[in-house]
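Researcher: Quick sanity check before group meeting.
Model: Go ahead. Protein one:
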Amino acid sequence: MSEGVFSLQQQLAERTRRNNKVRAVVLAGGKGTRLAPYTSVLPKPLMPIGDRSILELVLGQLRDSGINDVTLCVGYLSHLIRAVLDNSRHGGAEISYVQEEEALGTAAPMRLVDGLDSTFIAMNGDVLTRLDYTDLIRHHRQDENILTIATRARPIQIDYGVLQLGTNGSSNRVRGYVEKPKMTSTVSMGIYVLEPQALDYIPRDGYFDFPDLVQALLKADERVGAYQYDGMWFDIGRRDDYERAVSAWIDETDEEAEASEVAARTV
């Protein structure tokens, strides 16, 4: 185990010195059933945010971070994703596809991607965020992780009154009552940085999710790290999430445009 860790540390140090280009794998094959009925006609990554789709925004952000080699893992309504991207400009980015013939989960599709032989990003194709991918990669290499998970603190509202029950045989006695408490948990943003060695923990066949991969790595005592982020992030899972994301993104974009106009007038 120590030899493997030492080898990984050497490789990470060498890649950092050479400033290797990083590839991205974007997972865009899911059906997005929680966002129905929108996703009955559009795959979730093509849901519009302003005048572009979520996926186009993601690809633009990756390109702006210097990540120009992107593989899309597609499945549900993949012909629409190909049609949109084939008719849009990518600023020199190289886009390739792998087709999921059956549902594989969020980690198994990576075994279909050829040439993942150095540090790479894997992420969901429906994540709306301002995350700095360059800083995420730097953090990953600095901490010498095999997998780094981008994380966000997220408040979770409990929609019920929560009871605190008695102990010492008095389980029917109520000792406290909190109405609809709000808790804060650290959650995955659906964005990861991986070393190619992590792929060895994905089974050759069958369905396999990222939580399964994380559990396998932890069980093997591999280095799994967290990158804590506190900026804009929306997981476009449900209709309410999508509508909040659209509103927040447009508001922030309008503010940025107004600030740019003010700056231009003062020059």
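Researcher: Fine. The other one?
Model: Protein two, sequence then structure:
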Amino acid sequence: MPSAVFSTTEAVQLGQFVVQAYNLSSGAAFALPAGYSLVATLYADDITDDVPDYKVFGFIARNGSAVVVAIRGTEDLLEWIKDFDLILVPFPYADAGDAEQGFNGFYSTFRTGNTSTSPRVIDAISQLVADGSVQSLWIAGHSLGGALVTMLALDLAANKVYVNPVAYTFGSPRVGDKVFAGTYDNLVASSWRIANLNDIVPQLPPQFAGFVHVDAEVPINSDDHTRQTIVCWHALATYLNTLDPNVPLDGGCNP
């Protein structure tokens, strides 16, 4: 279980980094909070669209001794989850049970360049923290980005690259089996999995197929905040607005 206390303020601040990950990917205006500079742009082969090409999925930013990794999701995640075979295979980067094979494949392409030979994200973080100057490492992601956050945090902690990352996810699916989740919970002490009550993505892949969520769940309910649709329940803006009403909803999600 997490040893730290969940912070709504911290969650919303990190959620805004994930908003910028979406902006960076889409070509919209990209702006980091004051004091932060861009360290690396993160890419992955977006296998959800059946096209073998690397796309921008996030970034690493730094402000002095603080580092933030922000990872976006994908609009095609729900359809992709419905179509996959729900096969659990060993997580190849640590002795940590099994993870869904599609997520394993996706994570294997997570790099700091847009080719299969570019450095892995964990290797870039390893170089960043090698001199001991990084005192805080936050990893945040939405939707599929939440699955990538979970795998990255486990990879970092299990391989002692950075043993105490702080993970925040929004609308993350289940990633692996009971052993995977238990290993994660034991190694990643500060982890917060924010799940909207009616959002279908955190309910997938299903428990009957052997999938188990990592700790610690932070349940929220957007019913009084947003339009009642599958898209709005899962939208990152809905999550942030439910945590902090000052954050605007997506235009089509106003109740």
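Researcher: One line on it for the slide.
Model: Helices lie at 8-26, 77-83, 101-108, 121-129, 144-158, 178-187, 230-234, 236-243.
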